[in-house]
UniProtKB/TrEMBL annotation:
It holds the Pfam family ABC_tran. PANTHER family: ABC TRANSPORTER, ATP-BINDING PROTEIN (PTHR43335:SF2). Belongs to the ABC transporter superfamily. GO terms for molecular function: ATP binding; ATP hydrolysis activity. It comes from Streptomyces tardus. The keyword Translocase does not apply. Keywords: ATP-binding, Nucleotide-binding, Transport. Residues 3-232 form the ABC transporter domain. This is ATP-binding cassette domain-containing protein. It comes from the Bacteria.
């Protein structure tokens, strides 16, 4: 099954300019990194793909499921840029609550919350109040919440922002396991070098357009000749944006 945006147009209000216009995109298998400068339209793409907002034109589908269907919402999970901890809820209660909102029974939600927290390696913190978790931990709670109903597609808006290197490592391992289990992941980030070399695919956007979408090798070869090792992803990204500006 493939998540597809077909000729989608979206703007935030009738008098505002379109952020995406007749925008089409097909999510590849595996882990895809979504790159682009501030305001490129990455969050908007993720929100459309998650059916959090509805396009003014075009359609979003997953296989033969329309984004308007309840089944679609079960298959696709979205994690927003910021997760608000709820003072009265522990990590497990938070995840179970999201599961319940997604239509699971209370018992199921409670059981699955435990499993989801195990998947993101937060078992030890399951009884800790969400307000007492670190920024990286609360993001992993967000991923657990996104996973609690066994979604097949995970849309993550800047999940690694503010994580320290150890949290990042852990987070990468969690993602790698999910991808191994067949979950498709689309992840936006400003950390070009951080993940690009591990991803299966890279999509680069600017001003509502896709500048490149392909496997990671096709992205990395965009780096100018002579780019220092360790700077290849950054070089490729900059070269693509510079070329995109000339179009
Ligand atoms: N709620 C909103 N109301 C009005 N305009 C918005 C809203 N959200 C986003 N926009 C506008 O839509 C455009 C694309 O924003 P979007 O958040 O999708 O970009 P982005 O690539 O995710 O940026 P960033 O990297 O800064 O998060 C920007 O011009 C932004 O100002």
């Amino acid at each position: 099954m493939t998540l597809v945006l077909s000729a989608c147009s979206y703007r935030y209000g009738r008098v505002r300019p379109y952020v995406l216009r007749a925008f089409s995109y097909e999510l590849p298998d595996g882990l895809t990194i979504l790159l682009g400068p501030n305001g490129a339209g990455k969050s908007t793409l993720l929100k459309l793909a998650a059916a959090v907002v509805v396009p003014q034109a075009g359609r979003v589908s997953y296989g033969n499921l329309s984004s308007r269907s309840k089944e679609f919402r079960r298959e696709i999970a979205w994690m927003p840029q910021s997760i608000t901890p709820l003072p009265s809820l522990t990590a497990r209660e938070y995840v179970a609550y999201v599961g319940w909102l997604k239509g699971l029974s209370r018992t199921d939600a409670w059981e699955r919350a435990q499993q989801a927290l195990r998947r993101v390696e937060l078992t030890e913190q399951e009884g800790v109040r969400t307000t007492q978790l670190s920024g990286g931990q609360i993001r992993r709670v967000g991923v657990a919440a996104a996973l609690v109903h066994d979604a097949r597609v995970l849309l993550l808006d800047e999940p690694t922002a503010g994580m320290d290197p150890r949290q990042r490592r852990l987070f990468r391992d969690v993602l790698a396991k999910l991808v191994e289990d067949g979950v498709q992941v689309l992840l936006s980030t400003h950390d070009v070098a951080d993940l690009a070399e591990e991803a299966d695919h890279v999509t680069v956007m600017d001003r509502g357009r896709v500048l490149l979408s392909g496997d990671t090798g096709a992205f990395l070869v965009e780096a100018p000749e002579g780019t220092a090792p360790g700077r290849v992803a950054e070089g490729a990204y900059t070269a693509l944006l510079e070329r995109g500006e000339q179009v």
